[in-house]
Amino acid sequence: MGPIERPRRVVQPPATAPVQPLQQTGTARSGHQPWQPAPQQERTAQRRGATAPPLRHALYGNRSADLREALSRLDAQVDEAARRQLADWIREEYEVQHTAIPVGFVTKCYLGAPFVDHILDLAGAIVEHYAPGTPMPEPFGAGRMLARSGSYVCVEVYGDGLVLPVLPDGSVVQP
Hints:
Residues 1-59 are annotated as: Disordered. The chain has helices spanning 40-47, 65-76, 80-98, 144-148, and strands at 104-108, 117-121, 126-130, 154-157, 163-166. It is an alpha+beta fold.
């Protein structure tokens, strides 16, 4: 018997939360990466109730409707040349809008039995489908249960192990 996968938390988008403008901050702080804690000065200012909004990295910005649609078409695309062209557009969009390109995406599969989820890989625009008992390669395995929950459009997987679920409205669940 294979390893038991336990469900992870499912986050629903807030019903009335206003969308805040995205600020470019990743290069302003030298050496700060989005998956690392904020520098001590920034955390102290936030605790004191500073009036300035906390800086957000472009990586956590909302995903556009065009990008979400392109990701769904990447899975459905049959023609290899069209799939590569779509993957190139998605890669460019992530590089320009979100400053980092995911290694790939884990999404729920709608092909039916025996497949339950699949990987969309931007490096080669490969789509791989997985049955429930088939292990996914790392780092994709970390996003598997999130993708199966059905609450997310996709789960972005980055080379350093960062996993970012994307909600249907395009907002990103921060780790």
